[in-house]
Amino acid sequence: MTHPTDPGRRRFLTRGLLTGGTLMLAGCDQLSRSDAMQRLFAASEGVTQQAHRLLASREALAREYAPDDIAPTFRANGTTMPREADYQRLAANDFRDWRLEVDGLVERPQAFSLDDLRAMPARTQITRHDCVEGWSCIGQWTGAVLGEVLARVGVRDEARFVVFHSADRYRGGEPYYESLDLREAYHPQTLLAYDLNGRDLPIANGAPLRLRAERQLGYKMAKYVMRLELVSSFAHLGRGRGGYWEDRGYRWWAGI
Questions:
Q1: pLDDT tens string 36-50
Q2: Cβ-Cβ contacts under 8 Å for 243 (sequence gap 6 or more)
Q3: Residue 255, SS3 per DSSP
Q4: What confidence tens digit (pLDDT) does each residue in 193-210 have?
Q5: Cβ neighbours around 39 below 10 Å, total
Q6: Nearest by Cα to 139 from 228, 61, 202
Q7: How far apart are CA 62 and CA 123, in angstroms?
Q8: pLDDT tens digits for 132-184?
Q9: How buried is 76 (Cβ within 10 angstroms: 0-12 exposed, 13-18 middle, 19+ buried)?
Q10: Phi, psi of 214, rounded to the nearest 5 degrees
Q11: Burial degree of 216 (CB within 10 A; 0-12, 13-18, 19+)
């Protein structure tokens, strides 16, 4: 396994993000209610992204751990069972009819089944999930390398971001979505994960597919992924900031 040259980098940048507070919150949405935190997030985003890029090379890997470090139970956060009828129908059939749609600014829009994704080049990694709420958990993830999926559809030159559309409507509200820039999307540890700790991904943790972007905080890692959309901007999405929580005041860049 590859370890970063500076193991303290992630802790340093996480502390910078939290800006001295522990942020041990009952739920992520509490943070977005603070006007002061919204202003802080907006002002610090560019600085944090620049600092991360300076400290980490393009291909720098997040730390990977030993099997003995895996938590007995990987903590589930946010929605643990989407209420949408279409999702529940797919879950009742063990996701045999589920398809991942990949479209937008691509040459060859496609729809992939779980079997299709499992047949693609895969990666297994043991990594730590860091939540902005203040907790961490180590798990083993296996999934299709996102860069391989993008290669199948042919990303057009004008595309800048990958948007991850979820089956979830968090607390019955607006559709949940997230996004990464192409630099992070093509990182070797960025996966579309279908297994957790050697077994099929549980529904509570995002089945049938969730994003793992190991150099980002947990709120970037969308669960219940149904569609990838390649876009040049976020103007047509939500409130235009690139993600469900970003639309509510979180920083779009969540590198650690």
A1: 444 444 444 454 455
A2: 177, 178, 179, 219, 220, 250, 252
A3: strand
A4: 999 999 999 999 999 999
A5: 11
A6: 202
A7: 14
A8: 999 999 999 999 999 999 999 999 999 999 999 999 998 778 899 999 999 99
A9: middle
A10: -70, -10
A11: buried
β pairing state of 175-181 and 210-213:
unpaired
Q: How many CB atoms lie within 10 A of CB 184?
A: 20
Helix axes 9-18, 35-55, angle to 10 degrees: 160
Beta bridge partners of residue 121, listed in sequence order: none
Tokens of 204: 């509570």
What burial letters (b/e) apply to 221-236, b meaning 16+ CB within 10 Å?
bbbbbbbbbbbeebee
* CB contact at 8 A, 36 and 4: no
Contact 217, 229 (CB under 8 A): no
pLDDT of residue 173: 84
Which residues make beta-bridge pairs with 161? 181, 231
Length of the chain: 256
Per-residue tokens: 62: 């997040």
Question: DSSP character for 21?
Answer: -
Model confidence at 119: pLDDT above 80: yes
What does pTM read for this prediction? 0.80
Q: Which residue has the tokens 């077994």?
A: 199
